[in-house]
């Protein structure tokens, strides 16, 4: 029905606006036949145009649907970005302040670096010094306790066991000062992983208190243990001016 109406409409237009044939011999039938052919050709063109418009419309609709889906995705991403931006704005000021302070501290330290500081950076500072509490007697083969800790740089010395455990490998020097009262013996040995490093003994024959010192160098690896052991029953004392002590320091790593 739609097609017939379109044909009739086109035919009417062509009939109204068309000119009469100039040739007197041409029949009206031929003229109308040509008009009909022209209407049919125009109808085909219109059909093709209409089909093209329909296809274009479908493509536009599909494109709009795709854009709508992308819009939903973009809105979701924008919400995530907005939340992150809020988080960044909240903490960025304090973070930048902390970073700036840290940078200034590093810059200030770097400006103070000299040869001594470089040597210190090459060799970590590992140092401890501990003392006995007062007058004690240590029996043979027992570990001498040094519960009073004055220095424990590197946290290698354990006051509860009186044992130093190396956290940095290198060459160490260990020093023991031992004090004993008159007519008393003190016989001690520096032990490295159960093996004697250095031993010494002292007897105060004049009735006065005396202090003696022994030291030992040792090449120590990480996890090695060093302590002081009594090789015989020993009477030791510590006073404010002088004390029985055990110390060690990393010389070079």
From TrEMBL:
Residues 1-18 form the signal peptide. The keyword Hydrolase does not apply. Residues 50-84 form a coiled coil. GO terms for cellular component: collagen trimer. Its main location: secreted. Keywords: Coiled coil, Secreted, Signal. The keyword Secreted applies. Residues 121-253 form the C1q domain. Gene3D superfamilies: 2.60.120.40. It is found in: Secreted. This is C1q domain-containing protein.
């Amino acid at each position: 029905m739609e097609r017939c109406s379109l044909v009739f409409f086109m035919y009417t237009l062509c009939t109204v606006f068309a000119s009469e044939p100039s040739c007197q011999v041409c029949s009206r039938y031929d003229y109308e036949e040509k008009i009909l052919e022209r209407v049919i050709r125009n109808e085909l063109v219109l059909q093709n145009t209409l089909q093209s418009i329909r296809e274009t419309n479908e493509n536009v609709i599909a494109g709009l649907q795709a854009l709508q889906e992308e819009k939903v995705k973009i809105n979701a991403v924008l919400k995530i970005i907005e939340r992150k931006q809020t988080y960044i704005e909240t903490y960025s000021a304090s973070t930048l302040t902390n970073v700036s302070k840290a940078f200034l501290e590093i810059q200030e330290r770097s400006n103070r670096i000299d040869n001594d500081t470089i040597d210190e950076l090459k060799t970590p500072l590992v140092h401890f010094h501990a003392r006995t509490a007062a007058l004690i007697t240590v029996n043979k083969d027992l570990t001498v306790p040094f519960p009073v800790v004055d220095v424990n740089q590197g946290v290698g010395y354990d006051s509860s066991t009186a044992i130093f455990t190396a956290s940095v490998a290198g060459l160490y020097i260990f020093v023991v000062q031992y004090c004993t009262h008159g007519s008393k013996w003190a016989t001690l040995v520096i032990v490295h992983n159960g093996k004697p490093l250095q031993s010494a003994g002292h007897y105060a024959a004049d009735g006065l208190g005396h202090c003696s010192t022994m030291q030992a160098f040792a090449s120590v690896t990480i996890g090695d243990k060093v302590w002081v052991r009594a090789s015989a029953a020993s009477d030791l004392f510590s006073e404010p001016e002088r004390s029985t002590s055990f110390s060690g320091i990393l010389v070079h790593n």
